[in-house]
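Running co-folding for magnesium ion.
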Amino acid sequence: MFIPNIFGTLMKITENPDTRYEFEIWFDYTKKAINLIREGTMVVVPNFASNNMETHLSILEIVSILPMHYALGSDISGYPGFIVEAAHSACLDWEQENESTEDTTKIRCIAVPTNFELKLTNDETTFQIEENIPMIGAKVNLLNNEYTQRVINLGINPEVENTLIIGNLVRDPEINILLRIEDLIKVHFGVFGFTGAGKSNFMSTLISKILENTKEPVKIILFDLMGEYTALLIDQLLKIPKAKIICLEEKTLPDIVFKCLNNEIKLTRQIAEIYQKTTLLPKMLKRRQNDFIKPLGLLIYHKKIKLWQELLDLTVDQAVQKGNPWGKRQKGSSHWNNINNIIGQVFGKYKDQDEKLTSDLAQKLLQNLEKTEKFNQYREDFSNLINVLKSVILTSNKDIKCGITTNEIISELNDKTSSSLYIINSHNPDILREFAHRLGNELYDNRRMTGEITPLCLFVFDEADEFIPQQPKGSYELSSSIAMTIARRGRKFGLGLGIATQRVRYLDTSIMAQPHTYFISKLPRQTDREVVAQAFGISEDIFKQTFKFKKGDWLLVSYDATGLDAIPIPIHTENADDRINKFLDEINKNK
Ligand SMILES: Nc1ncnc2c1ncn2[C@@H]1O[C@H](COP(=O)(O)OP(=O)(O)OP(=O)(O)O)[C@@H](O)[C@H]1O
Ligand SMILES: [Mg+2]
């Protein structure tokens, strides 16, 4: 159960508003010990619930480590000659191999409670909720790998529950960390780290792990503002039968690719090459750009790229809102009233109805509009709405083979037979935000009306500050409102939210309180750390370990999805580039 020959002493207990208590533990310094004791190490110390019959050992997690040499202390302000000399001789002490003979060298650690304990009786060892606080001065032992793995994943049974292995403990590749998929999605997650920390890379790893491991169908809708996920999830796009990229405008694709999707011309390697050249590749995979030609060509070949047919499933009411003849005029002004009268005459009977705007109906409404009494006087105000009606007529008559309507997307999202992935692309961020609002709202309303709660749907916003900023205006208001709806009320209908951003302090503050699971990398700015600390109750001591993080390292904290409630676990996750590399090797094997 314990790692032999390494003991520490519990030196101090202080109260801490974030973690309840904070403990200071000193270990005798040895080389072996300094290499073994890391952030994330689990230790046990007897607590006051122990008695003659049973031993209760509180389980604590080490969150910060500092080797300490008594001869130097923390004050180096004395006479430099002496100080440097003392440092040199202190350094010799660090060279001690396995036996600690010097009382001057210690490893000072800060630990936090996991709120669990190990109860040892004559014939049984059980994990349970901690019954009392640790005894100061008591001996501290390190849990071995088997027990550490059990503590970290406490209460999760991967045989029966829907779980995935998100990664391993940073200090030990052998200790796997489990996540409950349903809780991860339903009560939302956030990924926070400075630019280049690897958020998008991690999102690709997380999404592919969900799709590959889930026992229940999960639908993932990813709003891809930068257009980086076609390459980052190329494997999933091809492996999952219904996975697709949805382009919101024709402009998102090179013309020739669009023609090819629309069966106007035949797919050639040259067309796939053009598509590859316009697809953003992860930096590390750019040298393999030629190997992307085949899989990207396959996306075209299998018709996995669709063009959103916005106008084909508008209701009359939605078309009027979109055309917005009232403009920004003051409600109740005579100009506003006159426009409103005309709208009442022509569109009044469709108000709050779900009547679809077909090509014929658009034609009829257009004629009726032009016949109204004061129409000529207000023609300018109606120009936008007229354009919408004309576009509906035009699009309905155009034969688009690669189109997909909002209704079709919704029915795929409600299909219970398999998991799927939808990557939403647009050159225009405003359209992306509007689409998020429209799709999200329609799905939410649909689920609310039917009472349907499956399959689980995850809405992912990378660059979340571009969707959910503070004081949103214009299209930002739309994306913010749907993100809020999902965050606050989506759970009941099986809808969840995943957000990633480097600019935590620009996010709407109330959205920050929503995720129950979060992954934190380095946040160099104090202001960002403060926001996260406030939202999730993480103390500075716990943050310190993130400063040392390498790419792929994350501090994972979760209230529901992990075994330990709200206990930060430093994890290392796979590099998505490696997964894609392997996939490219595989798919290019037979050219
Ligand atoms: N786990 C990892 N292991 C190794 N390298 C990684 C890892 N994650 C990301 N990288 C590398 O770091 C670089 C930046 O990654 P990524 O684009 O995912 O960062 P980001 O946090 O999304 O950045 P931004 O804030 O600009 O969106 C990439 O070139 C990627 O290859
Ligand atoms: Mg990114």
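Result summary
Residues 199-200, 462 surround magnesium ion (ligand 2) (CB under 6 Å).
Residues 429-450 form the longest helix (22 residues).
Job closed.
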